[in-house]
Amino acid sequence: MVSGLLLVTSLCFQLSGVQTASTGFRPNTPAATPAQSPANITVEMRGDIFMARKMYRDAIEMYKTGPADSPVLANKIGIGYHQLLDLATAKKYYNRAVKLRPDYAEAINNLGTIYYAGKSYRQAIKLYQKALRLEPDSASILSNLGTGYFARKNFELAFDAYQKALALDPDVFEHRSSMGVLLQERSVEDRAKFHYYVAKTYAKAGDIEHALMYIRKSLEEGFKERDKFKQDPEFSAVRKNPEFDLIFTAERKAL
Fold it and tell me: Where in the chain is CATH 1.25.40.10?
């Protein structure tokens, strides 16, 4: 599995396979500044501080002292449990958030990540699509949709979703962070092929540097269809870069 699956938008959580996405997130609670006195820090802010420190149980307990009818707090409690790998309880709180706010795209997306973790990829895709109808410009949700398609081996649909996500956010595959409300799926079984498609996405977008980086990752992870890098039209500009040949030369020496 690819490490770092959930990425929450804005500040981001990181655990094995799950990350929080940093772009596209409109923070509900900005981080406390030195000008803010402790009396002005809300329950949600205090919980966010615990989350940023990866003190997930403390964050959950803090969020629970807030209003029981807050969909935002319900979603964040779900994320806290998700980070603790208590997916059943996380699902319960995501469902609560959606019940409180039926158009809460972030919570619907997060619920999709629960189904993805359980390998119910078809249901995960349905939830990502539902979330996208509410937030069509979310690069993180589009990335999740692509990963759902990838898991079902619908590689062309995955590639299409990845291209749309990258067009919205050039850093969508690079987020590393620890807080927010929207989870970005990063776990895949075939890392080598996943990185091939990420390389292809960057190459088509004209980002040679990142394309080369993911070509290298794909080869290091044992991608078998190496000729694709030399034949796919998306890599035509990448092949003109001297580093492209160096990558394959180094790989042959390693073998």
Answer: 6-189
Ordered per-residue pLDDT tens for the chain, 255 residues: 443 455 554 433 333 355 655 333 334 444 444 445 566 889 999 999 999 999 999 999 999 999 999 999 999 999 999 999 999 999 999 999 999 999 999 999 999 999 999 999 999 999 999 999 999 999 999 999 999 999 999 999 999 999 999 999 999 988 755 456 788 877 788 999 999 999 999 999 999 999 999 999 999 999 999 999 999 999 999 999 999 999 988 765 544
CA distance 208 to 203: 6
Q: What's the full length of the chain, in residues?
A: 255
CA-based angle 84:90:91, to the nearest 5? Answer: 150
Cα–Cα distance measured from residue 201 to residue 164, given in angstroms and rounded to the nearest whole number: 9
Q: Which residue has the tokens 């492209």?
A: 244
Distance, CA of 78 to CA of 63 (rounded, Å): 10
Out of 1.10.3720.10, 2.130.10.10, 1.25.40.10, 3.40.50.2300, select the CATH number for domain 6-189: 1.25.40.10
- E strand or H helix at 115, and its extent? helix 105-117
Write the CB contacts of 44 (distance below 8 Å, at least 6 apart in sequence).
Answer: 28, 29, 63, 66, 72, 73, 76
Helix (H) or strand (E) holding 7: strand 6-7
Output the DSSP codes for 135-155: -TT-HHHHHHHHHHHHHTT-H
Owner of token pair 């070509």: 215
- Tokens 């655990």 belong to which residue? 15
Of 235, 252, 147, which Cα lies nearest the Cα of 191? 147
